[in-house]
């Protein structure tokens, strides 16, 4: 986070500084060649800044660069007033003034992926700033040659004409929209999607959607994904063949609400969910992006949804435990389909077998009551694991680096793992190797035990049947397991690490809670048969799409063979 801020500051200083120097050299000195060279350098710096700071207001430096180039051009011609050059200057000035408003107007237009709709107006509006930098580069080259000013004028007129056409088209669509809707609506009507996955979240949250896409596709009905933040368009479109649509405004949401839609799925409690849940003709279903005993998992906002798909009975009890009163008929137990590929181990590993431990610290949360992060006290834990000859998979939460202190703590842990791998050859995994190259399921399957903070990872790991430890980072003491009942099936590691050796003995060797884990597994994840585990979700989702709109009843959660014999 700090490094990103530093890069943005450096880019800003370079583009502004070079633009000022270019203008001063061209306007106040006789060094016309140096002025043009500095102007070209400033153009390069401005282009880099636009990549680092998309959407940044660069009008000031662009004006200075344009002035430097045009003044240098006039001096190179040395022929007095030139009408073509004056018109070029007016066109460039107009473009400088238009870039910001057109970019903002283009940003309010629908953008799509995986849908045969292309909006050239939005594309040009978004990249008009780049086109202006390119135009100034052409004018600078014409000045350096020097070429007749008519060359620069023609280039400026072409760019200005494109900008004018874009502005006219955007204005028409804004103030005189077609009664039948635009191209996006017509394309969706042709596809007849039956449900929509609606998503709004902070940057870095695309995993909340990508974990559900394979199962939404397995429903076997056409659907689309609606996004409210543009940065998610590319990564989510790459993860599915379904149409993905970025809707920046409420009017854009009206555009995608085609008559064939019946159900809207949600994966979090984002504030912008209210923008879509207002469409009462749809059935609104909350899926969540994990199951845990965290406070956000029993958010009172869940009550606004028509259905709440939960992994097991424990999730229903969680709402009641914190006093959130939701009618029982809203809940549907569907299991946690993402665990279907987790390998289940019913037998205990022999004592003395080399162990691999998955450590998954969570982030600090948006509020103090949701801060379960163990990174501040993780170093002694990691050192003790390494002393015991354990191979460690360190998979941190995607939001970890948003907190500078957490980023430093995580960096220290990776240094310890790198040093131990060099010394012992044990193949510890961290960073991209653990978080991008491997999925969570692959990390679970590679490990023999889990150490985690309070998070949804524990519920997923519970399906494997393997032992886990959970960190108590609060001040609840003995009341910790009352707030977080899932911890009763694991080994609770205190914040001061006073019981660290005892917990590691139980986690890696004796495992006295094995039987309790299997009982808890059924309450938290349902007892659906392993060979058809995900069918519980798929059947419930299909029932919601039935024309009769029958309220789905939880599927009978019969004990699966492994849990019955464990």
From TrEMBL:
Keywords annotated in UniProt: Membrane, Transferase, Transmembrane, Transmembrane helix
Name assigned to this protein: CDP-Glycerol:Poly(Glycerophosphate) glycerophosphotransferase
Molecular function per GO: CDP-glycerol glycerophosphotransferase activity
Protein's UniProt keywords contain Transmembrane helix: yes
Tagged with keyword Cell membrane: no
One protein family per Pfam: Glyphos_transf
Superkingdom classification of source: Bacteria
Transmembrane segments annotated in the record for this chain: 84-102, 123-144, 150-171
Region described as Disordered: 546-566
GO cellular component, one term: membrane
């Amino acid at each position: 986070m700090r490094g990103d801020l530093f890069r943005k500051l450096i880019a800003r200083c370079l583009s502004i500084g070079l633009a000022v120097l270019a203008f001063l050299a061209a306007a106040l000195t006789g060094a016309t060649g140096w002025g043009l060279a500095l102007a070209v350098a400033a153009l390069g710096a401005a282009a880099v800044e636009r990549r680092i700071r998309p959407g940044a207001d660069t009008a000031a430096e662009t004006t200075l660069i344009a002035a430097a180039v045009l003044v240098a051009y006039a001096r190179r011609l040395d022929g007095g007033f030139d009408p073509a050059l004056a018109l070029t200057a007016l066109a460039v000035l107009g473009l400088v003034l238009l870039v910001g408003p057109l970019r903002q107007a283009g940003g309010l237009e629908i953008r799509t992926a995986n849908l045969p709709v292309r909006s050239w107006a939005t594309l040009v509006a978004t990249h008009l700033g780049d086109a202006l930098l390119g135009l100034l580069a052409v004018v600078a080259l014409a000045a350096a040659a020097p070429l007749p000013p008519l060359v620069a004028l023609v280039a400026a007129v072409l760019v200005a004409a494109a900008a004018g056409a874009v502005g006219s088209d955007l204005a028409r669509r804004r103030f005189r929209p077609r009664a039948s809707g635009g191209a996006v609506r017509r394309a969706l009507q042709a596809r007849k999607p039956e449900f929509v996955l609606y998503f709004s979240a902070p940057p870095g949250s695309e995993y909340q959607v990508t974990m559900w896409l394979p199962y939404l596709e397995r429903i076997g009905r056409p659907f689309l994904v609606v996004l409210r933040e543009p940065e998610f368009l590319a990564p989510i479109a790459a993860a599915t063949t379904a149409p993905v649509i970025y809707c920046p405004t409420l009017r854009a949401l009206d555009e995608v609400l085609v008559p064939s839609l019946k159900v809207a799925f949600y994966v979090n409690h984002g504030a912008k969910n209210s923008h879509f849940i207002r469409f009462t003709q749809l059935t609104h279903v909350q899926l969540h992006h994990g199951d845990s005993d965290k406070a956000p998992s029993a958010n009172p906002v869940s009550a606004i949804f028509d259905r709440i798909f939960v992994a097991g009975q424990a999730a229903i009890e969680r709402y009641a435990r914190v006093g959130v009163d939701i009618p029982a008929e809203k809940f549907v137990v569907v299991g946690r389909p993402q665990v279907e590929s987790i390998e289940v181990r019913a037998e205990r590993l022999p004592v003395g077998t080399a162990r691999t431990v998955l450590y998954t610290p969570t982030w600090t949360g948006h509020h103090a009551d949701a801060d379960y992060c163990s990174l501040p006290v993780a170093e002694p834990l990691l050192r003790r694991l390494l002393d015991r000859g354990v191979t460690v998979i360190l998979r941190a939460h995607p939001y970890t680096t948003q907190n500078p202190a957490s980023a430093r703590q995580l960096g220290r842990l990776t240094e310890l793992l790198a040093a131990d791998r060099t010394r012992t050859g044990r193949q510890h995994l961290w960073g991209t190797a653990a978080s991008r190259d491997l999925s969570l399921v692959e990390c679970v399957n590679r490990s023999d035990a889990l150490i985690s903070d309070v998070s949804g990872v524990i519920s997923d790991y519970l399906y494997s049947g393997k032992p886990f430890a959970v960190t108590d980072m609060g001040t609840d003491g003995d009341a910790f397991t009352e707030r977080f009942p899932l911890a009763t099936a694991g080994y609770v590691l205190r914040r001061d690490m006073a019981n660290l050796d005892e917990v590691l003995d139980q986690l890696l060797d004796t495992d006295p809670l094995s039987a309790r884990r299997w009982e808890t597994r059924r309450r938290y994840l349902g007892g659906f048969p392993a060979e058809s585990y995900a069918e519980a979700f798929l059947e419930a989702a299909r029932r919601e799409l039935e024309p009769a709109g029958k309220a789905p009843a939880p599927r009978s959660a019969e004990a699966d063979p492994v849990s019955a014999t464990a």
